[in-house]
Design goal:
The protein has 356 residues and is an alpha+beta fold. It is built from 13 helices and 20 strands. Among the domains are: 50 residues, no CATH class; 86 residues, Jelly Rolls; 85 residues, Oxidized Rhodanese, domain 1 (3-Layer(aba) Sandwich), CATH 3.40.250. Pfam families: cNMP_binding (PF00027).
Length: 356
């Protein structure tokens, strides 16, 4: 029996926690499945001073003490309202955290949660196909609205590529409609030198070699996570090298038109906090800081002087916004801020996403 099952960590019990409560049921199931449980006893030291927090930590059972110095300590109780949120902001790195009672924590990967939140907002009904027609990567079960774990893992593997870090999540559905998954064999030529560029490729697994002229003169080896073929698509030149598989593997490929639309011409503009502060200081245009997190997230960690519209309400609130104002979306919303930026830009608003 898994620890999730042993401690009754299910989609039903976790649906009350923020921002997990924003996930479509199918995504919530997978986020829980990929989470982990940490069980502790009274007196255990959970976090030493100087700790780093690599996950979202939910205190599901027990009480813990957060100590900062000799005379400063607070108690976090799993039965109190603040524990319905990740406790990360309650356990700063300059504190030591010790268990008062036995209990357990549930750890969630923040990157996976961020993506799942973005996918949920892009497909609020939990339909991973994004349309009524089958795409190149869609299975029959998706068309019927059922969850397909292989497809979910396929999407996750693609979004592990750094290339996609700034991709507007609102384009995710269209991206996966256009990407084609291709199983390849050792010795197969993927790109032939001097051919016209037709596809952009991602190497999901396996390895390949890059050669020019004589196939015995290998220039480089491509490993999972590598992408190639974009230069010929961007500049309309012929292929400058050949790519040949060195072992069996799997590729994802995207046709030229889709590459230009979805990857080469991003819809969302990003600015740093420093650039934003310069804009504020210049006072040359009307600007507004916009937070699109859920109400519970905003109330739990509010942002002063910030307009708050939950992403789920943004489309119905567009008429209330001023098109002469430049909207800057907070980075706290993660990829959901990217979705909001896409919605606003599609409706002719000037919008930027704060992103360090």
């Amino acid at each position: 029996m898994s620890l999730q099952a042993q401690y009754n960590i299910t989609e039903k019990t976790m649906a009350g926690y923020s921002p997990l409560d924003q996930l479509a049921p199918t995504y919530l199931v997978e986020v829980i499945k990929k989470g982990s449980v940490v069980v502790f006893e009274a007196g255990d030291v959970l976090f030493e001073k100087g700790h780093e927090l690599g996950f979202h930590y939910y205190l599901l059972a027990g009480k813990i003490t957060v100590k900062k110095g000799l005379f400063s300590s607070t108690t976090i109780d799993s039965k109190r309202k603040e524990s319905l949120h990740p406790i990360n902001n309650l356990i700063p790195s300059d504190s030591t955290v010790k268990a008062q009672t036995a209990g357990h924590l549930f750890l969630v990967d923040p990157k996976l949660l961020d993506r799942a939140l973005a996918w949920s907002e892009s497909n609020p009904k939990g339909d991973q196909s994004g349309s009524n027609k089958q795409s190149k990567t869609t299975t029959p079960s998706q068309v019927q609205g059922e969850f397909d774990e292989e497809y979910f893992n396929w999407m996750t593997s693609l979004l592990e590529f750094p290339l996609f870090l700034n991709l507007p999540p609102a384009n995710i559905t269209e991206l996966f409609d256009q990407f084609e998954r291709v199983e390849v064999e050792k010795g197969q030529t993927i790109i032939q030198e001097e051919d016209e560029g037709d596809y952009f490729y991602l190497l999901i697994n396996g390895s390949a070699k890059v050669v020019v002229g004589d196939q015995n003169a290998k220039l480089a080896t491509l490993r999972p996570g590598a992408y190639f073929g974009e230069e010929a698509l961007v500049s309309d030149i012929v292929r400058s090298a050949s790519v040949i598989m060195e072992e069996d593997g799997c590729l994802a490929r995207l046709d030229k038109e889709s590459f230009q639309k979805l990857l080469h011409n991003p819809l969302v503009k990003y600015v740093s906090k420093a650039e934003y502060q310069k804009t504020v200081a210049a006072a040359e245009e009307k600007i507004a800081l916009l937070d699109i997190r859920s109400l519970s997230e905003f109330e739990y960690i509010p942002m002063p002087d910030c307009l708050h519209i939950p992403l789920s309400d943004l489309r119905s609130s567009l008429a209330k916004l001023d098109k002469s104002t430049a909207y800057y979306l907070t980075e706290d919303g993660g990829q959901r801020s990217d979705i909001a930026a896409h919605i606003l830009s599609q409706n002719q608003f000037k919008v930027f996403v704060l992103r360090n």
